[in-house]
Write a structure and sequence with these properties.
By secondary structure, the protein is an all-alpha fold. The chain has 2 domains: 29 residues, no CATH class; 40 residues. The protein contains 4 helices and no strands. The radius of gyration is 25 Å and the shape is rod-shaped. It starts with a helix and ends with a helix.
């Protein structure tokens, strides 16, 4: 109730407009992982098998879990 009255007062006094009450959506981004989620030896072994290749069926898994090794 107090918040509504405060906002109404701000509108009436011209400090804010009705457009100010509609905020634009916040765009978020996902941070790129900087390391490997699995031990280096595992990621290196999988890389040697060609799993880091974009054509590999495991490319998404490797990018998500062995990022540092595959880049």
């Amino acid at each position: 109730m107090a918040t509504q009255k405060y906002v109404t007062t701000l509108l009436e006094m011209g400090f804010i407009s009705r457009d100010d009450l509609h905020l634009a959506p916040i765009l978020t981004t996902t941070e790129v992982p900087c390391g490997d989620a699995y031990p280096k030896s595992y990621c290196e072994d999988q890389k040697q098998r060609g799993f880091c290749s974009p054509r590999s069926a495991y490319a998404t898994f490797m990018t998500d879990n062995c990022y540092a090794t595959c880049r």
